[in-house]
TrEMBL record:
Keywords: Arginine metabolism, Hydrolase, Manganese, Metal-binding
Superkingdom as given in the UniProt entry: Bacteria
Protein name, UniProt field: Arginase
GO cellular component, one term: cytoplasm
Pathway: Nitrogen metabolism; urea cycle; L-ornithine and urea from L-arginine: step 1/1
Record family assignment: Belongs to the arginase family.
Molecular function as annotated in GO: arginase activity; manganese ion binding
Pfam families reported for this sequence: Arginase (PF00491)
Protein's organism: Aerophototrophica crusticola
Cofactor: Mn(2+)
The keyword Metal-binding appears for this protein: yes
Enzyme kind, highest EC tier: hydrolase
EC identifiers of the protein: 3.5.3.1
Cofactor note: Binds 2 manganese ions per subunit.
Amino acid sequence: MTAFMNARHWYGLVGAPTDIGNFGCGAASGPAALRAGGFLDRMRHQGIVVRDMGDAEGPAEGTGIGEHGIRHVEATAAWCRAVRDGCGQVLADGGTPLMVGGDHSLALGSVAAASAHARKLGKPLHVFWFDAHPDFNTPDTSPSGNTHGMPMAAACGMGHPEMLDVGAFTPLLHPHDLTQFGIRDVDHGERAHLLRHGVRFHEMPEVRRAGLVSLVAEALERAERAGAHLHVSFDMDALDPEHAPGVGTPVPGGLTLDESVAALRLVGESGLTGSFDLVELAAVREAGGSRTVQSALELLQAFLRADRRLFVEPLAVRVA
Ligand SMILES: NC(=[NH2+])NCCC[C@H](N)C(=O)O
Ligand SMILES: [Mn+2]
């Protein structure tokens, strides 16, 4: 039995300071900006245990442009493996990994850890993906060659062999168990992939019609019925640029901070979340302000405060 097993539930912050998946977009500044914004103190003051596991380490330089114009795929895979190991360690110690990026390619690493953990527990993996983009490109559909547009296709078993090799097995995720919210910038071939594989991707017109909270509630019901390990991946560009100007690929017409807070509160209340990402926090892109960091802090706080597991002492378990 590890030392933490009878402790209250905790989250483990795994930083991933890179923008290798969209070289130069500025997301490498995310983990430091969140720490400098006082995240850990703020949580401590509210009695929430977030252990800082430090930063994952990976190549500082890109590894060049390959077939189909795919950029830095070896470096991306190296970073994803480091994130996989960091998140895997938190899961093995009984905590919930909170991966802070960094660009969104890194979610392939956290999903690899989540998927292996879920398999060990005999649970299916469900993923909630809050994003302006589905990140469901493969090297042959990607218009940019940037790997941060590819992690979900790779998790579902489609993509460059380097990316398919990040997890212990492939696919890591069944496309039916992926639900996306806030989508409003879909590439042509990417849309064909999403439709062919039956991904639920809720685009902004539908979010406006049905409401983010009720779409999330529906998806939570499915996850609960399935007894799933839920992985939540929040790309800061899901928010409207008014609330998150500091991102590498802003798209107008996004989620409001209020509705996102309400949705994450609901996710937190469900107690289903087994792993969480907050990515594409490119604080350095924001001229003279910290709006994006403040939004990130509010989202995380809403989510964590709603998770009752963080406040309840577990019953002592007596081992005979
Ligand atoms: N995680 C992100 N910000 N992804 C943006 C992807 C943009 C575009 N669809 C691409 O593949 O290049
Ligand atoms: Mn994304």
